[in-house]
Amino acid sequence: MSNKDVYENLKQSLKSDEKDFLDDILREKRLDEERAIIEGINHDVDHLAAVNFCCNFFIPTFHISKETGYTIVLIEPLYKMGIKSFDLAIFRKDNGSLILIECKAAISQISKEVDEVTKAIKEVINNKSILEQTIGNKITLIEFVLCVPHLAAQEVCNEIYEKAAPIITWGFSKLEGTMQLIFKNDLESEMKQGRVHLDSNLRQLLLKGVKSEIGAIYTYPILPSSNRYTTLIYIIQCLFIMWRGLEQNRGKLGYVNIFGILSQALTNKTAMDDSEIHDLTDSLINLGKRKEVFEDQTPQINEVDKKIFRLTVNIRSAYMCEEQVRNKYVKKNALEKAYNESVLRFQEKRGLKTLQSFLS
Amino acid sequence: MKIPYRQYLIEDFLEILFKIEIESYNRLKLACFLTKFRSWKEERKTYDLERILKNRGIEIENNGQIQILHGHYWDQQLGKEKPAIFYTYLDSNTGLLFCFTDEKSEAIEEILGKNIADVVEGFYYLFIRPNTFDLLSKKIYEENPTFYCNYFTATHSPEFRLKGATRPNIQRTIQYNGDDAISVLDEVKQFYGMIPTAIRYVLPGLGSYQVKNTGIFMLSGSNSEEGRRYLLHIADIVLNDVLILKKITDSVEYHAIPVKTDERTFAVPKMTPIKISFSRKVEFDDAEFLVQSLINNGYAIFNHVIQKGSLIMSGMLTDSSKNNIFTFDVNSERILIAPLGEPTFDGLLRLVHTINEKFDSNAVCEVLEESK
């Protein structure tokens, strides 16, 4: 039974003043949930921008990459290990040295963040062979970076020092377009502790601070762990490119289109393989159907990869399209959650015990 | 205007065009379009210029280097559909399509503008930016100091940064007739933050030349050969300036760089964005105007982030008319724009023009140099 059904069952069993009370709770909860979902999307996009700002320094042919030999190879390199930490892998092939970077667009609980990265480091060290397979190379050295907004960098660095964690701190400023290595105490000893880079070229450049060439242009428009809305809206907007010159197809899409868009954004750029991209495609199609953004045009066909869907939003204006998808996503998600929350809240206020009592 | 059918070289065609009789109530016009095509037929491609036009109901008659286009448009004045004929020449070096006609401007605007340049990839207006109008006026003055303007149209959007002193939040358009048009245009620029969309230059002894920002040049008040030649000269001044901008947009790249390890090859996307430098420092509050001016012109901004305080904004935007996606990064001094996928010059030009016409007319578009 869905949350909505539970809610409706409860409502039917109530007197009219209590029905109004329950509706009021639903309204309030729905607004709270909408705010929370929008905030979640915004956090996700903030993170996406921070990851891109950081990775753009290491694009081959750009200054730092040319000077140091370190080049971006993968985003979310630990995807296969199921480890959420570390957004980027920067690799120097000639000596097999790898840098894993965790980017934070904002940092609130410094101690917790440092602990999480420290925990992830242990797992990486224990599973080095999986990482070597992912990178396709023997790894001789791994360094770990926590990349945070410049204003918080010194505090983060202090915390890392206090906890004696082997983490290097980078501070970035999108405003100044810069990235800098931050350390505390003696350089030589901090190098030994894994809190300053061993590579002298990279160390010197980052100690001086490096200047961004292309800001936070989205070299990687989505990440494997991106919020589903961020990914869904990216796919839908990509369809506008797909419809270029194919006016008769406007508004229509199939499994292969979504898979193609995801594949182009993620294959050989992340640790995801084809089967994982197929899973993500399935999950996004289901999401689109649930949020009534995709309408199944071929109900007689069972195989999802042969189905044709129609976008149920404005397909002439990309702006209206985005706005309508956002509304559907936020409102539907919020309502689903709010049904459940309101029943619980009502129960709490009225001193009722179990959800089951409304079902009988 | 009826030009005899035969196999022409462009030079021969122009000689005839300069001399041919045109009905007194018709005006000779030259409309220029930028295209990505270097020939009419490209056998190896799934579509070419000829197929694009034919798919949109235009018949094409081959006359050597001149292709005669037959289309139909809705004549507002007569309230009925009318046929129209354009004599066109595709320059294989630049991809410029020159369209000569004495049909009404609305015929060009509907048949080649609304139905093609607005929506077809690889085909776009020779859009004349506000600064190019300034350049044209200066050049005409140098060559003909007795010139004056007797007509202009201009617009102002509330999002436009050069607001002028008077009620900057009002959306306005002006159509002005009067021999002091050039002075009045300066005044409305200053006081009302307006930018020109068409200007008519009167060159005593030669003719009147109306130039529209969509790249349509019209001659009136003259039937002389010299007057007609000058129409081409005016177009040429504009062309050179627009082609500089097109060259910048042509430098934009998107490709994947292969990065190899012992057993794997990764694909690192590499983009070369264009940089549009604002004429004045853009503050945080202006970001909303920039976003609004883009939305009002058919763009959607999505998955974007605006940092509070000083202006820092990055994200993606989709152009529903030209079906492109771009990624951008804005700070108080400039906006960087790169296509996510195969770049199209017309998509980039449309974006530059939107920023120039709706947000900052003095913003300068440059190639982003990589640091050494």
Mean of the pLDDT scores of chain A?
A: 91
Overall domain count of chain A: 2
Largest protein-protein interface: A-B, 55 and 53 residues
Major sheet of chain A? 7 strands, mixed
Q: Could you estimate the helical fraction of the residues of chain B in percent?
A: 25-40%
Main sheet attributes: strand count, strand direction, barrel closure of chain B: 11 strands, antiparallel
Write the layout of secondary structure elements.
The complex is a heterodimer of chains A (360) and B (372).
Chain A: H1 3-12, H2 16-55, H3 63-68, E1 71-75, E2 88-92, E3 97-103, H4 110-126, H5 128-135, E4 141-149, H6 150-162, E5 168-173, E6 178-182, H7 187-192, H8 200-208, E7 210-211, H9 228-242, E8 252-254, H10 255-266, H11 274-290, E9 294-296, E10 308-311, H12 318-350, H13 356-359
Chain B: H1 10-19, E1 28-35, H2 49-55, E2 59-63, E3 66-75, E4 80-90, E5 96-101, H3 105-117, E6 123-125, H4 130-143, E7 148-156, E8 172-177, H5 181-192, E9 195-203, E10 207-212, E11 216-220, H6 225-250, E12 253-260, E13 265-272, E14 274-277, H7 284-296, E15 299-307, E16 312-319, E17 324-331, E18 334-339, H8 345-358, E19 364-367
Antiparallel strand pairs in B: 1-5, 1-6, 1-11, 2-3, 3-4, 4-5, 7-8, 7-9, 9-10, 10-11, 12-13, 14-18, 14-19, 15-16, 16-17, 17-18
